[in-house]
Amino acid sequence: MTQPPDRLYLLYHELRPSRSDYSYVVETDQFEKHIDLFFKLRKVEKAPGFYPEITFDDGHISNFEYALPILQSRALKAWFFITTGWTGQKPGYMGWPELRALHEDGQQIGAHGWSHTLLTHCDQSQLQKELLEARLTLEDKLGTSITTMSLPGGRSNQRVLSACRQAGYTQVFTSVPKAEPQPARSTVGRLNVRGDMTLEWIAKLFQPESGVLSGLQRQHQIKATAKTLLGDHLYEKLWALLNRQEPSTDVRDAANYEDPAHHQ
Question: Which of 153, 179, 207, 255 has its Cβ near the most Cβ atoms within 10 Å?
Answer without folding.
Answer: 153
